[in-house]
Write a structure and sequence with these properties.
elongated; alpha+beta; eleven-stranded mixed β-sheet; single chain; 3 helices
């Protein structure tokens, strides 16, 4: 074998692997996110107890607005919820959730969930009755203090995203 053939073979062996290897990275298609709540949190139709839950988009190309909530070890489906797309003003590289502050003694209601790196998130759809309650609670909170009623936080006091 000539030196030229040997050199060509070595060059070929060096160049081939990048074409067949793919970098290892998590799929953002289903937007799977682990959220831990230190207290109860209301979602449409029920209240989640304090604990860890997985939020994931249903694998349906025709409808990207269905969110499934699973328990901490992903062995049980806790809820399947319809959402609406919602936008945020800036993109962050962390999970962001937005709650509606409620009257004393009532759990905060989960309003929006944004996946890291996405400008469009998921707004949970509540009944008209709940929306009226949220508006009433918001007025009470406004009268009581100057805090924003629907607060948005990267790491809210009652949720930890991983």
């Amino acid at each position: 074998m000539s030196l030229k053939s040997l050199s060509a073979m070595i060059l070929l062996l060096i160049m081939i692997p990048p074409f067949f290897s793919h970098p290892a990275r998590a799929s953002t298609y289903n937007q799977m996110t682990e959220l831990t709540f230190s207290g109860p949190v209301e979602i449409p139709g029920r209240i989640l107890a304090a604990g860890t839950y997985w939020f994931v988009l249903q694998n349906d190309d025709s409808d990207r607005d269905i969110v499934r909530i699973l328990n901490s070890d992903r062995s049980q489906l806790e809820a399947t919820l319809l959402t609406e797309p919602t936008d945020r003003g800036r993109e962050t590289w962390r999970t962001e959730v937005k709650f509606v502050e409620r009257r004393d003694g009532e759990p905060e209601a989960l309003l929006k969930w944004f996946y890291p790196g996405q400008l469009t998130g998921h707004e949970f759809i509540y009944s008209t009755r709940h929306e009226k309650e949220f508006a009433r609670d918001a007025k009470r909170v406004e009268l009581a203090s100057p805090i924003t009623v629907a607060s948005s936080a990267v790491a809210p006091a009652n949720a930890i995203a991983r």
